[in-house]
């Protein structure tokens, strides 16, 4: 299992490093990167979410217990981060990055690991994880941006952001197709799959391109806070909720797996769109990706020592 985790995370590290090198070498014009971020946020990531949720096979999966475990644990950690806000000593935009670093997750890494560990059943479990966490996390993040972001949002603007957020809309649309059972047209399905597959490399290249280590010393506190929430508080809350709800076996393993994933590249894109601290967000994403190489295997090995994972 440790090998599978490391193999899934290695491409993430390499793509982030490549983006950093391309930007520093000025291989592409500076104007390319904002447009690539926009493409990822409004087209590629929504395609990924919609396709994975619309086409997942969810038979014989404990949908209710799994979804509730993920939603409740996310809410618990989100509430803890907000409660600790006065002690973090960061400004509003930086706090939005700490918040995102505490609750967001890298969908592609989770899907790859779940499929590698449990095969087709893992893909179905991963789809349920996405359906539960993606809307929850995006609603919470929009609300935090409205309160603490540089571009303060009115209640009407918050409602508009939630109603038009491409990640929320695509997730809800994918779940609707899943519930209706109609499937996707033969021509549309491979097109969406291809667009979704492009979201990971484009997003990670943009994260790498945004890295600026000139302010690295000021990142230590925020990065440590976000990473402690992500790799300690989040899996602990997930295991607690799972035990309370009777979740076990592969479903429990997948739930913990998704909640200990490093922050996704979409966090940086959202920070750019809604007035967060984008350089700090890129730093948190990069550092967590490296830390996850150690944290994820340790968490899963620790879990396997107490509960069956097969």
Automatic annotation (TrEMBL):
Its main location: membrane. GO terms for cellular component: plasma membrane. It is found in: Cell membrane. This is Transporter. Belongs to the auxin efflux carrier (TC 2.A.69) family. The lineage of its organism: Bacteria, Pseudomonadati, Pseudomonadota, Alphaproteobacteria, Hyphomicrobiales. It comes from Methylobacterium aquaticum. GO terms for biological process: transmembrane transport. It comes from the Bacteria. InterPro entries: Mem_transp_PIN-like, Na+/solute_symporter_sf. Gene3D superfamilies: 1.20.1530.20.
């Amino acid at each position: 299992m440790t090998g599978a985790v490391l193999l899934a995370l290695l491409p993430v590290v390499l793509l982030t490093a490549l983006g950093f090198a391309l930007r520093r070498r000025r291989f592409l014009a500076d104007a390319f990167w904002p447009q690539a971020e926009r493409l990822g946020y409004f087209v590629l990531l929504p395609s990924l979410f919609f396709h994975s949720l619309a086409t997942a096979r969810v038979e014989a999966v404990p949908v209710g217990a799994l979804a509730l475990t993920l939603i409740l644990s996310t809410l618990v950690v989100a509430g803890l981060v907000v409660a600790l806000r006065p002690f973090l000593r960061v400004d509003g935009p930086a706090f939005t990055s700490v918040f995102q670093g505490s609750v967001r997750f890298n969908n592609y890494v989770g899907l790859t690991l779940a499929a590698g560990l449990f095969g087709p059943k893992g893909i179905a479990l991963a789809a349920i994880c996405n359906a539960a966490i993606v809307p929850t996390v995006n609603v919470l993040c929009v609300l935090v941006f409205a309160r603490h972001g540089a571009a303060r949002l009115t209640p009407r603007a918050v409602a508009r952001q939630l109603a038009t957020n491409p990640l929320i809309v695509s997730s809800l649309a994918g779940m609707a197709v899943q519930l209706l059972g109609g499937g996707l047209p033969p021509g549309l399905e491979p097109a969406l799959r291809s667009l979704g597959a492009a979201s990971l490399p484009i997003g990670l290249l943009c994260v790498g391109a945004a890295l600026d280590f000139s302010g690295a010393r000021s990142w230590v506190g925020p990065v440590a806070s976000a990473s402690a929430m992500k790799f300690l508080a989040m899996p602990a809350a997930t295991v607690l909720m799972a035990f309370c709800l009777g979740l076990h076996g592969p479903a429990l393993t997948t739930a913990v797996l998704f909640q200990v994933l490093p922050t996704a590249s979409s966090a940086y894109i959202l920070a750019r769109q809604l007035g967060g601290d984008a350089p700090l967000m890129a730093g948190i994403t990069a550092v967590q990706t490296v830390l996850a190489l150690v944290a994820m295997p340790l968490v899963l090995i620790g879990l396997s020592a107490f509960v069956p994972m097969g």
